[in-house]
Amino acid sequence: MVLLLYRKIRLKNIILKKQKDEIETQSIEIKNYNIQITDSINYARRLQHAVIVPSEFIKKYMPQSFVYFKPRDIVSGVFYWFTVKNNLIIYAVADCTGHGVPGALLSMIDNTLLNKIVIENNHTEPDEIFNRLHKGVTDVFSKRADFNETEDGMDITLITINPISKKINVSAAKNNLVVLKNGTPEYINADFFSIGQKPIREGQVVKFSKNEVDYDENTKIYMLTDGFTDQFNSDNNEKFGSKRFNNLITDNKNLPVSNQLNLIEQKMDEWKKSNEQTDDMLIVGIGLSEIKI
Question: What is the mean pLDDT of residues 75-85?
């Protein structure tokens, strides 16, 4: 009887050890997989950052400017795009569908299309850029079998600044632009459609509009995605909101734009506290007093 009990216990111990060894092996494999995945995503971040113009380069043309760029994950679904073409400064802020890896892949497609439309094909009117960008995005994804079930695209604001005429041309697809003139924030209303969005009804043609804004040396421009204003705080789970953002920029209207980045970072840290970041964040601030072409 004692011998039989000993054999049962011994057998159970053997089984338990085998299970433990299997768990440890699986744990090591999962750890290695995670390392490989993280390494791949970190490399993807390097690739994504390689195609984005450094903010230091932008400052050569617009010394009074900043870029607040806070991805939620390692790679991001938001991006900014900048070039100088035909004596125009062309600047865009975009928020692609999703965040993380899917958003980052879509941002690379959109970045490539912008390069082709503006830099290679010499189109500089914002509405024309948007219409061609929309066609490019829909052409890419219409090849997919599940095209009718997906909504892959981006919300984007694009401006062209003409330092000679002191005019800004703006197109916005579900992404507003804030212009601070005489200390008062003014919103340029965005078109209803996103880039890549399918028409609501059959036969409808998606077209984008253009607005023109005069500016002077005291005008400031802010382009931002909704990740900043949609961030929740840790006290009562309330969104930061557009009103607080308006107050933030108007309360500091006399502060040079180039000095506002630290202020915005500090404000968001105080607001978010221990809460997790809910979305990618991107704000571009531009002061129009020292533009160089």
Answer: 94
